[in-house]
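README, section 4: Worked example with a bound small molecule

Sections 1 through 3 covered apo chains. Here we extend the same pipeline to holo records, where the ligand is supplied as SMILES alongside the sequence. The molecule in this example is flavin-adenine dinucleotide. Nothing else about the input changes; the structure line simply encodes the ligand pose together with the chain.
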Amino acid sequence: MKNVAIIGAGPAGLMAAEVLAAGGAQVTVYDRMPSVGRKFLMAGRGGLNLTHSEALPAFLGRYGSATEHLRAAIEAFPPDALRAWSAELGQSTYVGSSGRVFPVTMKASPLLRAWLRRLDAAGVKIALRHGWTGWDGERLTFNSPDGVVTVQPDAAVFALGGASWPKLGSDGGWIELLKREGVIVSPLKPSNCGFLVGWSDHIKRHAGQPLKRIALSFGEHTVRGEAIISEAGIEGGAIYALSSHIRDAIDKDGEATLHVALRPDVWVKEIERKSAIPRGKQSLSNFLRKMFSLSPVEIALMQEATGGKLAALAPADLAKLINAVPIHVTGIAPIERAISSAGGIRFDQVDEHFMLRARPGVFVAGEMLDWEAPTGGYLLQACFATGAAAGKGVVEWLRTSS
Ligand SMILES: Cc1cc2nc3c(=O)[nH]c(=O)nc-3n(C[C@H](O)[C@H](O)[C@H](O)COP(=O)(O)OP(=O)(O)OC[C@H]3O[C@@H](n4cnc5c(N)ncnc54)[C@H](O)[C@@H]3O)c2cc1C
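The generated complex, written as structure tokens:
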């Protein structure tokens, strides 16, 4: 029986462990944290969006320039297979109105518990509080509560994650360790992240309030959804969906301007007609609330865009503003608060089974590879699929290299 070390007990690493145990390997999963799957559990906090139900060609397109590198792994372990796997673990799934797929319980914890029981039954060992620190010759080295531990498995899978929410375990510290081996890594950047805006104190009072059912535009891209005003700027689903474009513009130009349509479903003519109705003695806020059901935060956003001179706008300009409120963003919110990270090990550094060319026998999976995707279940799907592919790659490599 061959020994395989997996480093990283997130979705990618645990999926590789499952495939490898089924393939007859003796598997040990190492993780630096005191418990497994912390980011996975965090993902379950607001409803675990496991995958998406859209047709596979559209699904694959969500990975942009990484599509071709992920295609084989996702086709081999597609969304339906992930749903079936979840159901086998007692967590059947349903498709939400947006096409996103969730476990019926909405949570990650029952799924993770059932999964760990299955891994345990398959003989997978888990070594917690083992932080990988590099190689000593051919041996992998770890810091553990008992001091330095070294192991020499027959093969290894690295699934060390990206760099968002580092307190959950993945902090991108592996980059320096792999660079020493000659592995080329694209810098990790925030993805599905918020942005910084130099808000006035007036709008900061509305921090935490949502802008609901808006259309958010940046350049040629427009998405429907929700955004949330924060003390430092703006975040939320619609912002995350455009975040790769906004981030790249800020990287290039240092700033970017987004436009929010507050009432995207109301005809322009109707907005113009209502804007032209005389306000009489009503305050502007009351008028906007009654005519357009605008909430206090939406009105504050319009005030912000006009430098507090909203009341002075001519009706035609007011009408235009309602569906094109500019927001000037000046920075990217820190990676510590991002849902995921872009960048990682470049695909030209691995073979078609995700084995590092610089370190034969070492495979990589999950968010540490150089891809990004919007929220909607695409992140977890790619982590599970690449974990499964790396696991299969190891089984094949062990078979042919011995
Ligand atoms: C708030 C939040 C909500 C999210 N919601 C969703 C969602 O609903 N749907 C979705 O698809 N995605 C979601 N995601 C993203 C998803 O959770 C991640 O993409 C996924 O967990 C990445 O899996 P992974 O296995 O590659 O890495 P991780 O889950 O990050 O696991 C990596 C593991 O490696 C360990 N590790 C790192 N370095 C070392 C080291 N040197 N030594 C030993 N161990 C180490 C870490 O402790 C960690 O346990 C969410 C993320 C966040 C932060």
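What to look for in the output: The chain has a mean pLDDT of 97. Residues 7-13, 30-33, 38-40, 42-43, 48-49, 131-132, 159-161, 164-165, 169-170, 173-174, 339-340, 366-367, 377, 379-380, 383 surround flavin-adenine dinucleotide (CB under 6 Å).

Section 5 describes how to batch many such records.
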